[in-house]
Write a structure and sequence with these properties.
One of its GO terms (molecular function) is transaminase activity. The protein is α/β, with parallel strands linked by helices. The chain contains 13 helices and twelve strands.
C-alpha cells in the first residue's frame, strides 16, 4: 500500500504551495540516493505486478497472486502494457484518452498527414474472404510483398524474392513467435537495450538460450560486427536477434555494417531482423527523402542466405489496427512458419490481407514514405528543440524510429530514474515508458538499480503534434523545476 505521505501518493496539482515549492516537496520528501530497488516504492510497484518478480535459481513454489490456475506462470507484460495498466490505475481510460498525453505509445499517429495518400476508410468483403486464409497468407499479398522488396532493394540482382519467400502473419509479435517456435536448442544473441517483447519471447520459448550483448552509449549503441563474429566462434551463437532501426535508441545499422551483418548469415548463423521502422529514416539532404533501410539489399541468394526479415503495415503504413505483417526468408523457413502458424495463431485476417494488396504498390509506397519522413522528422526536431531549451539535451539523438531515449541522470534523486519519473508523470496524466523495459533480462534476476537502462525513459513522438505538446509541457516542467533544485 502507498504510504499517505509518499511523493507517489499525492497528485502534483493537489499539493500545497507554489509549483516550485510543490516540486521541492517531492524531492525533499524522498531525497534518498537509492541503491536498491527494495528502497523505492516505484520499483516495488513494478515487482508486485504479475510476471515481474525476481526469478530464483530454482523454480518458484506456486505464487497465489500469479498462478491462479495450477501450472500457469505469468510471462510478464511488455513495457507498453505495464504502463497502460499503471495509467488505468491512475484514472486513464481509453474512452477518455484525449484527456491524457500518451508519449509512451509504440504506434504512430494513424490520421491524415501532409502530402500522404488518403487514409483507407473502408474495405470490400467478398464472399471468399469470409473463409479462413492460408496460414502462410493470401498468395496475391505474398506476391505483392515480394515484388515491393525486389523493386525497392533488389533491382538488378539475379536472385529475387517470390511469394514462396513470404509468410503473412497477424502482427509482428506473431511473426516473432512463429520464428521462435521453429528454432531448435540454440544460443540466441540479443542486445541491450532493445525491443521489450524480446524479453517475453526469450523467456517463453525455452529452447532459445539467451546470450546478451550490452551496447555502449559511447559508440552510439553500435553493434560491433567484429566482436559479434568473435562471439559466434567462442560462444557458439546460432541466432542473432535485433531490431533495425533499433527501438528504443533510434539508431540504425546501415551501409557496410549492415552488409557485414548480412554476410554472417552465409556463414552458419541465422540473422533475425525486426525492420518495422525501416521507413523512419531521417535524411539530412533533400535527395535522400524516400529512401529506406533493409537487410534485403545485401542478401545474395534469397534461399541460401540465412536472413529473416520481419515487417508489416503496423509502423510504416501507420496501420497498427490492421494486424497485417510478414516474415521474409528462405523458402524452407516459410514452410516451417506455415506449420507453426497452424497451432500458434491460425493466420492473419483474410479481408484485411486482400485490402492490403493495393497499399504495396510501389508508387503508393513512395508517396507514403516521403510524407512520413518529412512529417516525423519535423516532430522529432520539435521535441528535441523543446528539450534543448530546457537544458536537457538528448545524449544520442535518434536518426530513425519515432523514439527519444532520454537520460534522466542529471535530475536530482529520486526523479533521476525511469520508474519513479514515470510514476510521477502518471499523476499529471502523461505516459512515458521507463527504460528498464528495454533491458532484456529474461531471468529477471538483476537489481533494477543495476540496469544500464535504469536512468532512462523512452519518449514517443508517434502521437500527433498537439498531443506531443500537451505531454511535453508536463515533462519539461518536471525536468526544469526538478533540475533547478540541484543547486
Amino acid at each position: 500500500m502507498t504510504h499517505p505521505h509518499s511523493p507517489l501518493h499525492t497528485p502534483f496539482h493537489s499539493r500545497p504551495g507554489t509549483p516550485i515549492q510543490r516540486f521541492k516537496d517531492i524531492v525533499l520528501d524522498a531525497m534518498k540516493h537509492y541503491k536498491h530497488e527494495h528502497e523505492s516504492e516505484a520499483h516495488q510497484i513494478f515487482r508486485q505486478a504479475a510476471g515481474h518478480t525476481v526469478k530464483a535459481a530454482l523454480p518458484q513454489t506456486i505464487n497465489p497472486d500469479e498462478e491462479t490456475v495450477p501450472g500457469i506462470e505469468h510471462p510478464g507484460s511488455t513495457g507498453v502494457i505495464y504502463c497502460s495498466d499503471r495509467a488505468m490505475a491512475n484514472g486513464f481510460s481509453y474512452a477518455a484518452s484525449h484527456e491524457w498525453s500518451n508519449l509512451g505509445q509504440g504506434a504512430p499517429e494513424v490520421g491524415e498527414i501532409p502530402n500522404a495518400p488518403p487514409r483507407p476508410t473502408s474495405i470490400p468483403l467478398p464472399t471468399d474472404s469470409l473463409e479462413y486464409a492460408p496460414t502462410t497468407g493470401v498468395k496475391a499479398l505474398r506476391e505483392a510483398v515480394a515484388n515491393l522488396y525486389n523493386h525497392t532493394y533488389r533491382q538488378g540482382k539475379e536472385s529475387q524474392y517470390t511469394f514462396e519467400n513470404v509468410c503473412i502473419v497477424p502482427g509482428g509479435r506473431a511473426g516473432l513467435s512463429r520464428v521462435a517456435a521453429v528454432i531448435g536448442d540454440v544460443y540466441t544473441s540479443y542486445q541491450v537495450p532493445d525491443y521489450t517483447a524480446y524479453d517475453q519471447m526469450l523467456s517463453s520459448f525455452k529452447r532459445l538460450v539467451p546470450v546478451p550483448t550490452a551496447l555502449d552509449p559511447k559508440t552510439k549503441y553500435r553493434l560491433d560486427i567484429a566482436q559479434t563474429k568473435k562471439d559466434i566462434q567462442t560462444q557458439g551463437l546460432q541466432i542473432i536477434l535485433a531490431s533495425n532501426p533499433r527501438n528504443p535508441t533510434g539508431q540504425v545499422i546501415r551501409g557496410n555494417d549492415l552488409k557485414d551483418l548480412v554476410a554472417i548469415g552465409r556463414e552458419g548463423t541465422t540473422i533475425v531482423l525486426d525492420e518495422f521502422y525501416s521507413w523512419y529514416i531521417y535524411p539530412e539532404t533533400e535527395q535522400d527523402y524516400g529512401h529506406s533501410i533493409s537487410s534485403a539489399a545485401y542478401v545474395e541468394d534469397v534461399n541460401q542466405d540465412s536472413i529473416v526479415i520481419i515487417d508489416g503495415l503496423t509502423k510504416n503504413w501507420r496501420l497498427p489496427g490492421w494486424r497485417i505483417c510478414w516474415v521474409i526468408g528462405p523458402r524452407n523457413l516459410i514452410t516451417a512458419l506455415s506449420q507453426s502458424g497452424s497451432f500458434l495463431d491460425g493466420g492473419a485476417n483474410h479481408p484485411m490481407q486482400l485490402a492490403a494488396i493495393q497499399l504495396l504498390d510501389p508508387a503508393h509506397v513512395k508517396a507514403e514514405k516521403e510524407a512520413l519522413q518529412r512529417h516525423f522528422k519535423a516532430k522529432r526536431d520539435h521535441v528535441l528543440k523543446r528539450l534543448h531549451n530546457m537544458h536537457l539535451d538528448v545524449d544520442i539523438p535518434p536518426t530513425s524510429t519515432f523514439y527519444i531515449w532520454l537520460n534522466l541522470e542529471r535530475l536530482p534523486p529520486p526523479l533521476n530514474n525511469g520508474l519513479t519519473f514515470f510514476e510521477e508523470l502518471l499523476k499529471e496524466q502523461t505516459i512515458v515508458i521507463p527504460g528498464i523495459f528495454f533491458d532484456i533480462n529474461p531471468s529477471h534476476r538483476r537489481n533494477l538499480f543495476s540496469s544500464p537502462c535504469h536512468h532512462f525513459i523512452r519518449i514517443s513522438f508517434g502521437p500527433p503534434m498537439e498531443d506531443l505538446d500537451k505531454g511535453m509541457k508536463i515533462v519539461i516542467f518536471c525536468v526544469d523545476n526538478g533540475g533547478s533544485l540541484m543547486h
